[in-house]
Design brief:
With about 240 residues, the chain is an alpha/beta fold. It has one domain: Rossmann fold. Helices cover about 35% and strands about 25% of the residues. The chain has eight helices and nine strands. Helix 4 packs parallel to helix 5. The model has no long low-confidence stretch (mean pLDDT about 95).
Length: about 240
């Protein structure tokens, strides 16, 4: 596929955003700016707010206070944004049927869906499994199918919530290869991971979250070579952030 024009939903801006569950702040006065370019990797301990940030960025959660804007707009329908969760749900149909369903939901014309389904399955390496029931695919294959469904929306921004958690190295590499290919086409990838090695391999920039706040953010090379905060130094060293 060819490179796309700049995404209308970028920059994606969080300003003093708070999202609460009862009296507990999941995101706590968080401010963050996400620009077009190489993948942004969200890292941090469990419970740091990575999933909540992704859901809010997608538009699935509204802030309790603060402001989220997409390309300077407070209200932007998520027609060119897509998200893949850690444990995606497979529809009771074939791999190809799952993709066709996603294309229909994205209002792709019916006469273009067959060819587009073939293209998307090829993009994620599932052409040979097109007719296999999706729920009989392996965990890694299901994640690749979830990526194909997300890409059916032709997104400008793709949010990924720990898509390789619990996958073996072979399946993890397959997902990472897809992420690189998608990013190379100009799609902005924002991905949460618990794997620092993966962050090294994929990130253009890093966002470290802790207790619902941005602790440190910057270019990946500088972040890993010379972290600026005690929390970042501890996290990189494998120490627990509590």
């Amino acid at each position: 596929m060819s490179m796309r024009t700049p995404a209308l939903d970028l920059p994606l801006l969080f300003v003093d955003v708070r999202i609460s569950a009862g009296d507990t702040a999941i995101l706590d006065r968080l401010t963050l700016r996400l620009e077009a370019g190489a993948p942004t990797l969200l890292i941090g301990p469990n419970g740091s707010g990575k999933t909540t940030l992704l859901r809010a960025a997608m538009g699935l959660l509204a802030p309790s206070s603060g402001l989220i804007t997409w390309g300077g707009r407070e209200h932007s329908p998520p027609t060119r944004r897509a998200i893949v969760f850690q444990r995606p749900t497979m529809l009771r149909r074939s791999a190809a049927g799952n993709v066709r369903y996603a294309l229909a939901a994205a209002d792709v014309p019916r006469d273009k869906r067959a060819r587009r389904t073939e293209e998307l399955l090829a993009d994620v390496g599932l052409s040979s499994l097109a007719h296999r029931p999706a729920r009989r695919l392996s965990g890694g294959e299901q994640q690749r199918l979830a990526l194909a469904r997300a890409l059916a929306r032709n997104p400008d921004i793709l949010f990924l919530d720990e898509p390789t958690a619990s996958l073996d190295p072979y399946a993890t590499k397959a997902i990472e290869d897809i992420v690189r290919a998608v990013a190379a086409r100009g799609v902005k990838v924002v991905m949460a991971t618990h794997d620092l090695g993966q962050a090294h391999r994929l990130a253009g920039d890093i966002v470290l979250l802790h207790r619902g706040r941005v602790v440190e953010t910057g270019a990946a090379e500088g972040f890993f070579a010379s972290p600026q905060t005690a929390e970042a130094r501890k996290f990189i060293a494998g120490e627990l952030l509590v």
